[in-house]
């Protein structure tokens, strides 16, 4: 990989291959978030809750080298295939988008998260909602802008046209949020209390929040009380010289990336994420969700500072 820093904008890019079906092309890029962008605004977020600094000191220069955004392949077909199984095959829209921002496949069969999240919900969530976000952000961006996606989310104010800017914010945010969301889930464990993070992330959560149980209680409370549609994220504060974790709620498809921060663990509380199985009982969805959290995937994000 070759790091190329764009320091004036606080963003650096790293070229390199992509995992899974994502293939490197001549224009493949992955973007590394390194600092709060000039267009960040707290109005995009309804507020982080916890804020205790970790002991590990990280210089700003180190942060500049390491904080991460999402890999984006350029110039590849959007028609991608997920693993085949009884749950069916997750794909992109099935149409050739012919564009730069890819539609990653669902990394497991549609029914892999049963009974916590049903197959129909996963099919609609990936193949309709997620594909829709990607399709619309591609339509909104110029070819040059697509090459900088998703780092362009860290500097939305540089998009001059208000309508385009809002489209990129909403559809681009949806594309990134769902990409991470699908990757940090897995086949459910029988007992949610036995599904726990380890390694540096486990230590960091304990240090930050007091215990895993305390973190989960605070995170779940944020998810259950968020008014309207949005997300709850555990994220790392990008500009902090120390590795600081926060829980925050984000309206609509806003993302920690828009504040210059790195998402780690996100829960989609839009009704499309749970209504078929849980109806209006968002609380039951939130409580059950801990069974499908793919902690090793989250640990990897935290330890490598690179999103899947
Ligand atoms: Fe969603």
Order of helices and strands: EEEEEHEHHHHHEEEHHH
CATH topology of the largest domain: minor pseudopilin epsh fold
Task: State the major sheet.
Answer: 5 strands, antiparallel
Percent of residues in beta strands: 15-25%
Rg, Å, rounded? 18 Å
**What's the β-strand tally?**
9
Classified by CATH, the class of the largest domain is: Alpha Beta
Tell me the structural class: alpha+beta
What is the helix fraction of residues, given as a range? 25-40%
**Average of per-residue pLDDT values:** 74
Question: Helical stretch count?
Answer: 9
Description:
The protein folds into two domains: 76-183, Fe,Mn superoxide dismutase (SOD) domain (Helix Hairpins, Orthogonal Bundle); 192-304, Iron/manganese superoxide dismutase, C-terminal domain (minor pseudopilin epsh fold, 3-Layer(bab) Sandwich). Strands 4, 5, 7, 8 and 9 form a five-stranded antiparallel sheet that branches. Strands 1-2-3-6 form a four-stranded antiparallel sheet. By secondary structure, the protein is of the alpha+beta class. Residues 1-86 and 91-99 have low confidence and may be disordered. It has nine helices and nine strands. Strand 7 (230-236) and strand 8 form a beta hairpin. Bound molecules: fe (ii) ion. This is superoxide dismutase. One of its GO terms (cellular component) is cytoplasm. Keywords: Metal-binding, Oxidoreductase.
């Amino acid at each position: 990989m070759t790091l190329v820093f764009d320091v004036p904008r606080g963003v650096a890019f790293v070229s390199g291959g992509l995992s899974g079906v994502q293939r490197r092309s001549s224009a493949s890029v992955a973007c590394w978030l390194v600092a709060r962008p000039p267009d960040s605004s707290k109005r995009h977020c309804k507020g982080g809750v916890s804020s205790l600094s970790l002991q590990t000191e990280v210089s700003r220069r180190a942060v500049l080298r390491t904080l991460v955004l999402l890999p984006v392949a350029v110039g590849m077909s959007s028609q991608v295939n997920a693993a085949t199984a009884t749950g069916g095959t997750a794909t992109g829209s099935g149409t050739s988008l012919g564009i730069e921002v890819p539609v990653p496949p669902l990394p497991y069969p549609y029914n892999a998260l049963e009974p916590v999240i049903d197959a129909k919900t996963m099919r609609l969530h990936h193949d309709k909602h997620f594909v829709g976000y990607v399709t619309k952000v591609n339509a909104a961006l110029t070819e040059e802008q697509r090459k900088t996606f998703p780092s362009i989310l860290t500097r939305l104010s540089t998009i001059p046209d208000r309508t385009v800017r809002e489209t990129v914010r909403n559809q681009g945010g949806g594309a990134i949020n769902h990409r991470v969301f699908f990757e940090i889930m897995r086949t459910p464990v029988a007992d949610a209390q036995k599904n726990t993070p380890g390694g540096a992330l486990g230590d960091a959560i304990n240090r930050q929040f007091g215990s895993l149980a305390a973190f989960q209680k605070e995170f779940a409370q944020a998810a259950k009380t968020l008014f309207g549609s949005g997300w709850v994220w555990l994220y790392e504060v990008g500009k902090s010289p120390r590795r600081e974790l926060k829980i925050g709620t984000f309206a609509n498809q806003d993302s920690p990336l828009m504040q210059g921060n790195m998402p780690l663990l996100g829960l989609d509380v839009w009704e499309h994420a749970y209504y078929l199985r849980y109806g209006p009982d968002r609380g039951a969805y939130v409580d059950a969700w801990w069974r499908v959290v793919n902690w090793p995937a989250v640990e990897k994000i935290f330890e490598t500072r690179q999103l899947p």
